[in-house]
Amino acid sequence: RTFRPARRLAGVLTGPPTYWTAAISPDGTLLAAGGTDNAVTLWPIDPATPGDAVNPVGSLDVGTEVWSVA
Question: Cα 8 to chain center, whole Å?
Fold first, then answer.
């Protein structure tokens, strides 16, 4: 399967906050990102229509800027 994140995730990693790092789960169902908001946030990656709102499924406050989620 070919993953085309640009179309599906357009606008997800816009700020604020500023995101320094992002990673896609091995099964391709979640995007994790971290940055200046001191948290790691998870978004679902699904076949919804491009342009649909993409709401986070969770966030973990880590108390400092996040530089890597890998």
Answer: 11
